[in-house]
Write a structure and sequence with these properties.
75% of the residues lie in helices and 0% in strands. The chain has helices at residues 3-18, 21-28, 37-63, 85-112, 116-150.
Length: 151
Amino acid sequence: MTCQDNEILLNGVLIQMARSFLQYVSECSPWVAVDGASDEAQVNVLAARQRQDVADIAALLNAREHHIDFGTFPTEYTDQQFLSLRSVMGGLKRSHESVCNRIGTAVVSLRTAGDSEAADLLTTVESHERDILRAMGEIEKTLASHSAAAV
């Protein structure tokens, strides 16, 4: 892989993260019951943490003088409006698992290409994103317990 290929790979990861379902859900403010407001706040915190990882990747691309493309949200997200947070949690987790897997694959490719700086950064980012995935699981459990208590 050439240096340019490394930057293209990094930018692809950046786009998937910057336009992830987590970012979309954070921007569209899903419906939550009164007792679930803290769950929504937690999702927004997770989205902010992901945006910081995006900023770190963007900083590396900027330092390498690579044009940064932040992408657009996939069109399939446009059907995901006016939904409860509980109803989108499964999709959030699946989408985020895909993000984590993409990062892991990119780490392997970058290490193989000898780009240890980018691979090290993405290794750290992958750890952060896996923490976010675990936190999503906890939020999902909390939302389920709110629903069970309401019945």
